[in-house]
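Hi everyone,

Forwarding the result from last night's run.
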Amino acid sequence: MTHVRTLLRGAMRYTMKNSNAQPRLPLPKSLWILSGISLFADLAGEMTYPLLPMFVIGVLGASPVALGLIEGVAEAIVSIVRGLAGYHSDSSGHRVRWVRRGYGFACIGKAIIAIAGGWGMVFSGRLLDRIGKGIRSAPRDALIAESVPESDRGRAFGFHRGIDSYGGVAGSLIAAGIIAWSIGSRPAVPEDGFQFRIIFACAAVAALTAWALTFLIPRTHPDKVLARREAHATARHKSFGRAFWIAIVALVLFSLGNSSDTFLLLRALELGSTPVESILMYATLSATYAIASYPMGLLSDRFGRWHVLATGWVLYAISYASFALVSAETRVGLWGIFAIYGVSVACIEGTARALIVDCAPKERLATALGIFGFLQGISLLIASLFAGWLWSTGNAQVVFWIGALFAAIALGILPWLPRLELRSS
């Protein structure tokens, strides 16, 4: 809790001290374009993602284990591809071509989900979608890191994650609107799933728009590509250093309890929420994530990454414990729990990326982000498969207690970590 108190006290002093400070430099054009692309991509993703539990289990007749397999393996594929794409982005010197290919794969994957006749096709479509995410993520994040000074990295990642999440809010609201119009407040999921397919088709169009916007990303000058390639060739045997691996251990330890968010939606449905309510709860999560991401990025620049991460882990543990404790009679509290969870993700997502970049050699940024993504994805695979098995055995509450426990463990080891001064200022 020391990290949380430090962050809160520092934030108050910083706000008072800087109320008349000169404005920061404007964010670069490339960051705005990348954020706009992510907005459409996340709009497509969040039109699809909240509906997957209802579609896979309610329409296609699969089990929670199958859902855990789909999400776990999909995220594992992301992690493997992200590691390879990060390395090749550094070694080739190219970033934009990997970003464009990634968004193209995601578009094809979403189209396959729209026409799926069984959970196997959903699995295939989800794999293509996640392969696309794996290809684009590390090169895109490296572009973001390279577009701003070191002192603005948290701000840049927070801005990107915030804009990304506004797309998620819009996607969730569109999905909820179509479901509300078609089935009203009935708790049952329609057996034919026609409404879901309409939404998935709209998501594919949004994903196509994201891919088309990649052609607006400024071209990298050939000299810069060559410089990246030569710098990577010189530095490819350079050690990442102790700080990098300490950060990786802490972040991956937390991820071992961080199962797929589809289980949050399953929990809401299990407690009696209607399909529309569950989607709107997910929209609440996305909204709080979007609103909090940019401020948390600024705070991590000013007061250090570990303080913001610790705050996120505290909120995560609180929200997951609350998911375990809430009952059908008190399910109205789910709205607040989803909101708290959204703030916790805002503290963790962008800050973790900025932390990894801080600890990595500048010649190997995409490789470092790829390593982090790979290990994080493997952790998510383990967490999601285990969560699916627990759910199928009637131990849904245990899933959330485990998540809260791993967040508490990650928080507990912070005092034992070196006091790394990972502030960019």
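The domain at 29-415 is CATH 1.20.1250.20 (Growth Hormone; Chain: A;).

Cheers,
N.
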